[in-house]
Amino acid sequence: MTHNLFLSSRRFLIGSFTRRPSCLVVMCLGLLLFQGCALLQGPSNTVAPSDSSAPTGAPKTSEGVQPVPTQPTVKATPAAPVKLPQTGQASWYGADHQGKPTASGTSFDQARLTAAHPTLPFGSKVKVTNLGNGKSVEVEITDRGPFGGNRIIDLSQAAAKALDIIDSGTATVRLELSSNP
Questions:
Q1: pTM for the full model?
Q2: 31 vs 124, which has greater pLDDT?
Q3: Most buried of 34, 72, 103, 128, CB within 10 angstroms?
Q4: Domain-located, residue 151
């Protein structure tokens, strides 16, 4: 009896599709649509390969892929080391750069005692002495520059005030490694 029921339902299905070919076309298109949607979603039961370069414990997205962290762009430091003490022209920069990222990744703050140097490592503490008046200040290297003229260092506005070079814009200075750690 079960065999007869199977044959009769098979005859019904095949018969209806042969009498109405549009039903067969609609069914095939529907299957293709569902297959395409499944391909777009991707397999849901697979495990993404581990990425050894990603930090441990980093959050994962629903696809199992770890997001790439956003990091500030850091300009490459030239390989040639500079020998200190160094003597040359200093200039300063301020309001036009306020809040913008520096080459070290920190935000520029014109009120901090910082400076830009072409090659000294970021975080270096440098004593800058104005040879015209004898005033000195300790600055931290947080940026790269200066890139024009014959200048050896660009000072923040606060450092320029401490050396009394705001009005002149430049001064002849001497750079030395700071004795403070």
A1: 0.56
A2: 124
A3: 128
A4: yes
